[in-house]
Amino acid sequence: MRRRKLGRTGLEVSELGYGAWGIGADMWSGSTDAEALASLRRALEAGVNFFDTAYVYGDGHSEELIAQAFKAAGRRALVATKVPPKNLSWIASRRIEDAFTPEWVVSCTERSLKKLSVERVEVQQLHTWTDDWLGQPALDDVVSALDKLKRDGKIRFWGVSIKARDPKSALGLARSGLPDTMQVVFNLFEQEPQGELFPLCREKGIGVIARVPFDEGGLTGKLREDAAFPEGDFRHSYFAGRYLAETVRRAKELEQRLVGGDTPDLAHAALRFCLSAPEVSTVIPGMRTPAHVDANAAVTRLPPYPAETLKELRAHAWKRDLAPA
Ligand SMILES: NC(=O)c1ccc[n+]([C@@H]2O[C@H](COP(=O)([O-])OP(=O)(O)OC[C@H]3O[C@@H](n4cnc5c(N)ncnc54)[C@H](OP(=O)(O)O)[C@@H]3O)[C@@H](O)[C@H]2O)c1
After folding, report:
1. Which of 26, 71, 178, 220 has the smallest number of Cβ neighbours within 10 A?
2. Atom of ligand 1 at shortest distance to CA of 212?
3. What angle do CA 113, 119, 120 make, to 5 degrees?
Protein backbone atom coordinates (compact mmCIF):
# COMPACT_ATOMS: atom_id res chain seq x y z
CA MET A 1 0.00 0.00 0.00
CA ARG A 2 1.51 3.32 -1.05
CA ARG A 3 1.72 6.06 1.54
CA ARG A 4 1.57 9.84 1.29
CA LYS A 5 2.53 12.63 3.65
CA LEU A 6 -0.28 13.97 5.80
CA GLY A 7 0.63 17.58 5.11
CA ARG A 8 3.21 19.03 7.47
CA THR A 9 2.47 16.53 10.26
CA GLY A 10 5.31 14.21 9.29
CA LEU A 11 2.87 11.28 9.41
CA GLU A 12 2.88 8.93 6.43
CA VAL A 13 -0.64 7.70 5.76
CA SER A 14 -1.85 4.93 3.48
CA GLU A 15 -3.48 6.21 0.28
CA LEU A 16 -6.50 4.16 1.24
CA GLY A 17 -7.81 5.08 4.67
CA TYR A 18 -10.75 3.52 6.48
CA GLY A 19 -13.99 5.48 6.82
CA ALA A 20 -15.66 4.18 9.96
CA TRP A 21 -19.04 5.92 9.94
CA GLY A 22 -21.06 2.98 8.59
CA ILE A 23 -19.74 0.51 11.16
CA GLY A 24 -21.09 2.76 13.93
CA ALA A 25 -24.37 1.18 12.77
CA ASP A 26 -26.73 3.88 13.98
CA MET A 27 -27.31 5.61 10.65
CA TRP A 28 -26.41 2.86 8.16
CA SER A 29 -28.62 -0.20 8.19
CA GLY A 30 -27.19 -3.65 7.60
CA SER A 31 -24.03 -3.41 9.73
CA THR A 32 -23.01 -6.25 12.00
CA ASP A 33 -20.16 -6.04 14.47
CA ALA A 34 -18.72 -9.35 13.26
CA GLU A 35 -18.48 -8.12 9.69
CA ALA A 36 -17.19 -4.73 10.78
CA LEU A 37 -14.40 -6.40 12.79
CA ALA A 38 -13.54 -8.66 9.85
CA SER A 39 -13.33 -5.59 7.58
CA LEU A 40 -11.16 -3.68 10.04
CA ARG A 41 -8.84 -6.70 10.31
CA ARG A 42 -8.64 -7.03 6.53
CA ALA A 43 -7.83 -3.33 6.24
CA LEU A 44 -4.94 -3.67 8.69
CA GLU A 45 -3.67 -6.70 6.75
CA ALA A 46 -3.92 -4.76 3.47
CA GLY A 47 -1.67 -2.01 4.85
CA VAL A 48 -4.34 0.57 5.70
CA ASN A 49 -2.78 2.59 8.51
CA PHE A 50 -5.28 5.45 8.86
CA PHE A 51 -8.73 5.06 10.39
CA ASP A 52 -11.25 7.92 10.47
CA THR A 53 -13.99 7.75 13.07
CA ALA A 54 -16.03 10.04 15.34
CA TYR A 55 -17.77 9.80 18.67
CA VAL A 56 -21.15 10.35 17.00
CA TYR A 57 -20.75 7.23 14.86
CA GLY A 58 -22.94 5.14 17.14
CA ASP A 59 -22.14 7.08 20.35
CA GLY A 60 -18.63 5.69 20.46
CA HIS A 61 -19.47 2.31 18.93
CA SER A 62 -17.31 2.85 15.84
CA GLU A 63 -14.42 3.89 18.13
CA GLU A 64 -14.94 0.79 20.28
CA LEU A 65 -14.86 -1.51 17.26
CA ILE A 66 -11.59 0.05 16.11
CA ALA A 67 -10.15 -0.52 19.59
CA GLN A 68 -11.29 -4.16 19.49
CA ALA A 69 -9.78 -4.70 16.04
CA PHE A 70 -6.44 -3.22 17.12
CA LYS A 71 -6.42 -5.37 20.25
CA ALA A 72 -7.15 -8.54 18.28
CA ALA A 73 -4.43 -7.68 15.76
CA GLY A 74 -1.94 -6.91 18.52
CA ARG A 75 -1.07 -3.56 16.97
CA ARG A 76 -2.63 -0.21 16.41
CA ALA A 77 -2.70 2.20 13.49
CA LEU A 78 -3.19 5.95 13.16
CA VAL A 79 -6.61 7.22 14.22
CA ALA A 80 -8.45 10.43 13.50
CA THR A 81 -11.60 11.07 15.50
CA LYS A 82 -13.91 14.07 15.89
CA VAL A 83 -15.46 16.36 18.50
CA PRO A 84 -19.17 16.76 17.70
CA PRO A 85 -20.65 20.26 17.85
CA LYS A 86 -22.33 20.73 21.26
CA ASN A 87 -25.61 21.71 19.63
CA LEU A 88 -25.32 18.88 17.07
CA SER A 89 -25.83 21.41 14.29
CA TRP A 90 -23.82 20.24 11.29
CA ILE A 91 -24.52 23.41 9.36
CA ALA A 92 -22.46 25.33 11.95
CA SER A 93 -24.14 28.10 13.93
CA ARG A 94 -22.94 31.71 13.88
CA ARG A 95 -21.20 31.68 17.29
CA ILE A 96 -18.44 29.16 17.82
CA GLU A 97 -19.31 28.78 21.50
CA ASP A 98 -22.65 27.20 20.51
CA ALA A 99 -20.66 24.37 18.91
CA PHE A 100 -17.25 24.23 20.54
CA THR A 101 -15.86 25.45 23.86
CA PRO A 102 -12.51 24.55 25.46
CA GLU A 103 -14.23 22.38 28.10
CA TRP A 104 -16.29 20.57 25.48
CA VAL A 105 -13.28 19.87 23.26
CA VAL A 106 -11.30 18.49 26.20
CA SER A 107 -14.11 16.35 27.64
CA CYS A 108 -15.03 14.91 24.22
CA THR A 109 -11.38 14.07 23.59
CA GLU A 110 -11.15 12.24 26.94
CA ARG A 111 -14.35 10.35 26.10
CA SER A 112 -13.03 9.28 22.69
CA LEU A 113 -9.66 8.21 24.13
CA LYS A 114 -11.55 5.90 26.50
CA LYS A 115 -13.69 4.43 23.73
CA LEU A 116 -10.58 3.92 21.57
CA SER A 117 -8.60 2.49 24.54
CA VAL A 118 -5.61 4.69 23.73
CA GLU A 119 -3.66 7.38 25.58
CA ARG A 120 -3.36 9.56 22.51
CA VAL A 121 -5.09 9.99 19.18
CA GLU A 122 -3.16 11.12 16.10
CA VAL A 123 -5.73 13.62 14.83
CA GLN A 124 -8.61 15.27 16.66
CA GLN A 125 -11.03 17.04 14.32
CA LEU A 126 -13.76 19.59 14.92
CA HIS A 127 -16.75 17.89 13.31
CA THR A 128 -17.98 21.01 11.52
CA TRP A 129 -16.66 24.42 10.61
CA THR A 130 -17.60 27.85 9.24
CA ASP A 131 -15.28 30.76 8.48
CA ASP A 132 -17.78 32.95 10.38
CA TRP A 133 -15.85 31.79 13.46
CA LEU A 134 -12.57 33.32 12.34
CA GLY A 135 -11.87 36.41 14.40
CA GLN A 136 -14.30 35.45 17.20
CA PRO A 137 -12.36 35.65 20.51
CA ALA A 138 -13.86 32.30 21.58
CA LEU A 139 -12.01 30.62 18.70
CA ASP A 140 -8.68 31.50 20.32
CA ASP A 141 -9.79 29.66 23.47
CA VAL A 142 -10.72 26.56 21.47
CA VAL A 143 -7.38 26.62 19.63
CA SER A 144 -5.57 27.05 22.98
CA ALA A 145 -7.43 24.00 24.32
CA LEU A 146 -6.41 21.96 21.28
CA ASP A 147 -2.80 23.11 21.64
CA LYS A 148 -2.85 22.13 25.31
CA LEU A 149 -4.20 18.68 24.38
CA LYS A 150 -1.17 18.41 22.09
CA ARG A 151 1.23 19.44 24.87
CA ASP A 152 -0.45 17.01 27.27
CA GLY A 153 0.16 14.20 24.78
CA LYS A 154 -3.55 13.46 24.25
CA ILE A 155 -3.61 14.40 20.57
CA ARG A 156 -0.78 14.75 18.10
CA PHE A 157 -2.50 17.04 15.61
CA TRP A 158 -5.84 18.73 15.08
CA GLY A 159 -7.97 19.50 12.09
CA VAL A 160 -11.50 20.18 10.94
CA SER A 161 -14.04 18.24 8.95
CA ILE A 162 -15.71 20.85 6.81
CA LYS A 163 -19.30 21.12 5.64
CA ALA A 164 -20.45 18.87 2.80
CA ARG A 165 -20.34 20.47 -0.64
CA ASP A 166 -19.29 23.86 0.76
CA PRO A 167 -15.51 24.05 0.51
CA LYS A 168 -15.74 27.84 0.37
CA SER A 169 -16.87 27.79 4.01
CA ALA A 170 -13.32 26.94 5.10
CA LEU A 171 -11.10 28.89 2.70
CA GLY A 172 -10.30 31.48 5.38
CA LEU A 173 -9.31 28.77 7.82
CA ALA A 174 -7.05 27.16 5.22
CA ARG A 175 -5.50 30.57 4.53
CA SER A 176 -4.85 30.98 8.28
CA GLY A 177 -2.80 27.77 8.27
CA LEU A 178 -4.15 26.97 11.76
CA PRO A 179 -5.26 23.33 11.36
CA ASP A 180 -2.93 20.45 10.60
CA THR A 181 -5.56 18.65 8.52
CA MET A 182 -8.80 19.27 6.68
CA GLN A 183 -11.38 16.64 5.85
CA VAL A 184 -13.53 17.44 2.83
CA VAL A 185 -16.09 15.80 0.54
CA PHE A 186 -14.23 15.15 -2.72
CA ASN A 187 -15.44 12.88 -5.49
CA LEU A 188 -16.31 12.70 -9.20
CA PHE A 189 -19.42 14.81 -8.53
CA GLU A 190 -17.97 17.21 -5.94
CA GLN A 191 -14.83 18.50 -7.61
CA GLU A 192 -14.88 22.07 -6.26
CA PRO A 193 -12.18 21.58 -3.59
CA GLN A 194 -9.60 21.33 -6.39
CA GLY A 195 -10.24 24.96 -7.30
CA GLU A 196 -9.21 27.00 -4.26
CA LEU A 197 -9.09 24.76 -1.19
CA PHE A 198 -6.48 22.24 -2.32
CA PRO A 199 -3.93 24.82 -3.51
CA LEU A 200 -4.27 26.63 -0.16
CA CYS A 201 -3.81 23.38 1.76
CA ARG A 202 -0.71 22.61 -0.29
CA GLU A 203 0.70 26.09 0.37
CA LYS A 204 0.09 25.83 4.14
CA GLY A 205 1.10 22.19 4.56
CA ILE A 206 -2.41 21.13 5.64
CA GLY A 207 -3.05 17.40 5.15
CA VAL A 208 -6.15 16.67 3.04
CA ILE A 209 -8.43 13.78 4.00
CA ALA A 210 -10.84 13.09 1.10
CA ARG A 211 -14.17 11.80 2.37
CA VAL A 212 -17.33 10.39 0.75
CA PRO A 213 -15.44 9.26 -2.39
CA PHE A 214 -18.47 7.21 -3.51
CA ASP A 215 -21.10 9.90 -2.90
CA GLU A 216 -22.50 7.65 -0.16
CA GLY A 217 -22.79 4.73 -2.61
CA GLY A 218 -23.92 6.67 -5.71
CA LEU A 219 -20.50 6.32 -7.34
CA THR A 220 -19.99 2.59 -6.81
CA GLY A 221 -21.97 1.49 -9.88
CA LYS A 222 -24.14 -0.61 -7.55
CA LEU A 223 -26.92 1.89 -6.85
CA ARG A 224 -30.14 1.07 -8.74
CA GLU A 225 -33.17 3.22 -9.49
CA ASP A 226 -35.33 0.90 -7.38
CA ALA A 227 -33.02 1.05 -4.34
CA ALA A 228 -34.91 1.45 -1.06
CA PHE A 229 -33.35 2.30 2.27
CA PRO A 230 -35.26 1.82 5.51
CA GLU A 231 -36.27 4.85 7.54
CA GLY A 232 -33.51 5.69 9.98
CA ASP A 233 -30.87 4.81 7.38
CA PHE A 234 -29.21 8.07 6.42
CA ARG A 235 -29.45 7.14 2.71
CA HIS A 236 -33.27 7.12 3.00
CA SER A 237 -33.17 10.93 2.90
CA TYR A 238 -29.88 11.35 1.00
CA PHE A 239 -31.29 9.56 -2.06
CA ALA A 240 -34.86 10.78 -1.54
CA GLY A 241 -37.07 12.02 -4.35
CA ARG A 242 -35.37 12.86 -7.61
CA TYR A 243 -31.86 12.47 -6.19
CA LEU A 244 -31.88 8.68 -6.65
CA ALA A 245 -32.71 8.66 -10.37
CA GLU A 246 -30.46 11.64 -11.04
CA THR A 247 -27.52 10.00 -9.26
CA VAL A 248 -27.99 6.70 -11.12
CA ARG A 249 -28.22 8.48 -14.48
CA ARG A 250 -25.06 10.49 -13.89
CA ALA A 251 -23.20 7.47 -12.51
CA LYS A 252 -24.05 5.52 -15.69
CA GLU A 253 -22.53 8.26 -17.84
CA LEU A 254 -19.35 8.07 -15.79
CA GLU A 255 -19.35 4.29 -15.99
CA GLN A 256 -19.50 4.43 -19.78
CA ARG A 257 -16.59 6.83 -19.87
CA LEU A 258 -14.30 5.27 -17.25
CA VAL A 259 -14.95 1.54 -16.87
CA GLY A 260 -12.90 -0.91 -18.93
CA GLY A 261 -9.29 -2.07 -19.19
CA ASP A 262 -7.63 -1.86 -15.77
CA THR A 263 -10.81 -0.32 -14.27
CA PRO A 264 -13.37 -3.08 -13.60
CA ASP A 265 -16.09 -0.89 -12.10
CA LEU A 266 -17.08 2.63 -11.22
CA ALA A 267 -15.90 2.24 -7.60
CA HIS A 268 -12.34 1.79 -8.88
CA ALA A 269 -12.68 4.87 -11.09
CA ALA A 270 -14.12 6.92 -8.21
CA LEU A 271 -11.20 6.19 -5.89
CA ARG A 272 -8.67 6.60 -8.68
CA PHE A 273 -10.12 10.04 -9.36
CA CYS A 274 -9.62 11.08 -5.72
CA LEU A 275 -6.06 9.78 -5.62
CA SER A 276 -5.23 11.59 -8.85
CA ALA A 277 -5.19 14.85 -6.87
CA PRO A 278 -1.67 15.18 -5.46
CA GLU A 279 -2.97 17.28 -2.54
CA VAL A 280 -5.05 14.37 -1.21
CA SER A 281 -3.13 12.54 1.51
CA THR A 282 -5.63 9.72 1.96
CA VAL A 283 -9.09 8.79 0.71
CA ILE A 284 -11.40 7.23 3.29
CA PRO A 285 -14.27 5.19 1.82
CA GLY A 286 -16.75 3.53 4.11
CA MET A 287 -15.93 -0.19 3.97
CA ARG A 288 -18.14 -2.52 5.97
CA THR A 289 -17.13 -5.75 4.24
CA PRO A 290 -13.73 -7.40 3.72
CA ALA A 291 -14.57 -7.71 0.00
CA HIS A 292 -14.84 -3.93 -0.28
CA VAL A 293 -11.52 -3.52 1.52
CA ASP A 294 -9.87 -5.86 -1.00
CA ALA A 295 -11.45 -4.13 -3.98
CA ASN A 296 -10.55 -0.66 -2.76
CA ALA A 297 -7.00 -1.59 -1.77
CA ALA A 298 -6.39 -2.73 -5.36
CA VAL A 299 -7.04 0.80 -6.63
CA THR A 300 -3.95 2.16 -4.95
CA ARG A 301 -1.88 0.18 -7.47
CA LEU A 302 -3.31 2.18 -10.40
CA PRO A 303 -1.56 5.31 -11.71
CA PRO A 304 -3.30 8.71 -11.47
CA TYR A 305 -5.57 9.70 -14.34
CA PRO A 306 -3.80 11.70 -17.05
CA ALA A 307 -4.39 15.46 -17.02
CA GLU A 308 -6.56 15.33 -20.17
CA THR A 309 -8.89 12.75 -18.59
CA LEU A 310 -9.19 14.88 -15.44
CA LYS A 311 -10.01 17.89 -17.57
CA GLU A 312 -12.71 15.97 -19.39
CA LEU A 313 -14.15 14.72 -16.08
CA ARG A 314 -14.83 18.28 -14.98
CA ALA A 315 -17.94 18.13 -17.17
CA HIS A 316 -19.33 15.45 -14.81
CA ALA A 317 -19.10 17.62 -11.68
CA TRP A 318 -22.50 17.98 -10.05
CA LYS A 319 -23.70 19.99 -7.08
CA ARG A 320 -26.60 18.13 -5.50
CA ASP A 321 -28.88 21.14 -5.62
CA LEU A 322 -32.12 19.39 -6.51
CA ALA A 323 -34.78 19.89 -3.90
CA PRO A 324 -35.98 16.50 -2.66
CA ALA A 325 -39.32 15.86 -4.34
N1 LIG B 1 -19.01 15.27 8.45
C2 LIG B 1 -18.05 14.36 8.42
O3 LIG B 1 -17.03 14.53 9.02
C4 LIG B 1 -18.25 13.10 7.61
C5 LIG B 1 -19.43 12.90 6.89
C6 LIG B 1 -19.53 11.75 6.11
C7 LIG B 1 -18.49 10.85 6.06
N8 LIG B 1 -17.34 11.05 6.80
C9 LIG B 1 -16.22 10.09 6.78
O10 LIG B 1 -15.98 9.68 5.44
C11 LIG B 1 -16.12 8.26 5.34
C12 LIG B 1 -16.60 7.87 3.95
O13 LIG B 1 -17.88 8.35 3.68
P14 LIG B 1 -19.16 7.40 3.69
O15 LIG B 1 -18.81 6.13 4.34
O16 LIG B 1 -20.25 8.23 4.27
O17 LIG B 1 -19.52 7.22 2.15
P18 LIG B 1 -18.72 6.66 0.88
O19 LIG B 1 -17.37 6.22 1.27
O20 LIG B 1 -18.88 7.67 -0.20
O21 LIG B 1 -19.63 5.42 0.47
C22 LIG B 1 -19.78 4.30 1.29
C23 LIG B 1 -20.61 3.29 0.51
O24 LIG B 1 -19.81 2.70 -0.53
C25 LIG B 1 -19.96 1.30 -0.51
N26 LIG B 1 -18.69 0.70 -0.97
C27 LIG B 1 -17.45 0.80 -0.41
N28 LIG B 1 -16.53 0.17 -1.19
C29 LIG B 1 -17.19 -0.35 -2.24
C30 LIG B 1 -16.80 -1.11 -3.38
N31 LIG B 1 -15.53 -1.43 -3.60
N32 LIG B 1 -17.76 -1.48 -4.27
C33 LIG B 1 -19.06 -1.15 -4.07
N34 LIG B 1 -19.50 -0.42 -3.01
C35 LIG B 1 -18.57 -0.03 -2.10
C36 LIG B 1 -20.29 0.97 0.92
O37 LIG B 1 -20.99 -0.24 0.92
P38 LIG B 1 -21.60 -0.90 2.23
O39 LIG B 1 -22.91 -0.19 2.43
O40 LIG B 1 -21.77 -2.34 1.87
O41 LIG B 1 -20.65 -0.67 3.33
C42 LIG B 1 -21.13 2.15 1.34
O43 LIG B 1 -22.49 1.92 0.94
C44 LIG B 1 -17.06 7.91 6.49
O45 LIG B 1 -17.06 6.54 6.79
C46 LIG B 1 -16.53 8.80 7.56
O47 LIG B 1 -15.34 8.26 8.12
C48 LIG B 1 -17.21 12.17 7.56
Report:
1. 71
2. 20
3. 80
The pLDDT tens digits of the residues spanning 95-143 come to 999 999 999 999 999 999 999 999 999 999 999 999 999 999 999 999 9
Whole-angstrom Cα distance, residue 295 to residue 202?
29
Other C-beta atoms lying within 10 Å of the C-beta of residue 216:
21
What CA–CA distance (Å, rounded) separates 181 from 9?
8
- Integer Cα distance of 161 and 182 in angstroms: 6
Ligand 1: which of 29, 165, 211, 294 to mutate, most ligand atoms within 8 Å of CB?
A: 211
pTM above the 0.70 mark? yes
Q: Which of 46, 114, 128 is nearest to 84 (CA)?
A: 128
Distance in Å, CA 19 to ligand 1 centroid: 6
φ, ψ for residue 116, nearest 5 deg: -85, -5
pLDDT at 93: 84
Measured from the CA of 128, which atom of ligand 1 is nearest? 1
Q: Over pLDDT 70: what percentage of the chain?
A: 99
Pick the CATH number of 3-218+271-314 from 3.40.190.80, 3.50.50.60, 2.60.110.10, 3.20.20.100: 3.20.20.100
Pocket test of ligand 1: the residue of 209, 214, 239 to mutate, having most ligand atoms within 8 Å of its CB, is 214
pLDDT tens digits for range 255-280: 999 999 889 999 999 999 999 999 99
Give the separation between CA 208 and CA 279, rounded to whole angstroms. 6
